[in-house]
From TrEMBL:
Protein name per Swiss-Prot or TrEMBL: Anti-sigma F factor
Keyword Nucleotide-binding: yes
Residue span(s) of domain Histidine kinase/HSP90-like ATPase: 37-141
HAMAP family the record matches: Anti_sigma_F (MF_00637)
InterPro entries: Anti-sigma-factor_SerPK, Anti-sigma_F, HATPase_C_sf, HATPase_dom
SUPFAM superfamilies per record: ATPase domain of HSP90 chaperone/DNA topoisomerase II/histidine kinase (SSF55874)
PANTHER family: ANTI-SIGMA-F FACTOR RSBW, ANTI-SIGMA-F FACTOR RSBW-RELATED
Species of the source: Acutalibacter muris
Spans through the membrane: none
EC top class named in words: transferase
Function, in words: Binds to sigma F and blocks its ability to form an RNA polymerase holoenzyme (E-sigma F). Phosphorylates SpoIIAA on a serine residue. This phosphorylation may enable SpoIIAA to act as an anti-anti-sigma factor that counteracts SpoIIAB and thus releases sigma F from inhibition.
Keywords, sorted A to Z: ATP-binding, Kinase, Nucleotide-binding, Serine/threonine-protein kinase, Sporulation, Transferase
Length: 143
């Protein structure tokens, strides 16, 4: 299926840019006239994925985070958050609730949050090359 509209942004992995990323994705998706709840779900999921890229992917250095957003005719959206950071050695394990390499500061719930707020979450990662998280959200039509 071809998207009917798409955009891309990229930004430095400073945590101050999390808010920018969330707002930019939400602004683009607002053309779908989403419900407040749906938009809030996407904002939360994007926030988790971007935080992961910044704190885990680029944990020891600054890098660039890339986001692409695609909108499809049937009203669903795909948001892909990519980093070129350290990568994840075992994606299945990383996606298990409560698994974290972030120590006491982290709950290990980011992927679980993404999964509960989106219709699908796919992760592909290569150690030393980076990580790509693809979120799919179907928007509830307003009646
Ligand atoms: N982009 C990434 N690059 C490298 N490792 C990642 C990335 N995203 C997630 N991970 C790994 O997957 C683990 C689980 O991520 P998840 O978001 O579920 O929990 P967390 O970030 O550790 O804690 P929380 O999100 O609750 O603060 C992380 O601790 C980290 O080891
Ligand atoms: Mg996280």
């Amino acid at each position: 299926m071809k998207p009917i509209n798409q955009t891309q942004i990229s930004f430095s992995s400073n945590s101050v840019n999390e808010g920018y990323a969330r707002a930019a994705v939400a602004a683009f998706l607002s053309q779908l006239d989403p419900t407040v709840a749906d938009l809030s779900d996407v904002r939360t999921a994007v926030s988790e994925a971007v935080t992961n890229a910044i704190v885990h992917g680029y944990r020891d250095r600054l890098g660039t985070v890339y986001i692409s957003v695609k909108i499809y005719e049937d009203g669903h959206a795909q948001v892909r958050v990519r980093d070129k950071g350290c990568g994840i050695p075992d994606v299945k394990q990383a996606m298990e609730p409560l698994f974290t390499t972030g120590g006491e500061e982290r709950a290990g719930l980011g992927f679980a949050v993404m999964q509960s707020f989106c219709d699908s979450v796919r992760v592909s990662s290569t150690v030393g090359k980076g990580t790509s998280v693809t979120l799919i959200k179907r928007f509830t039509p307003k009646c």
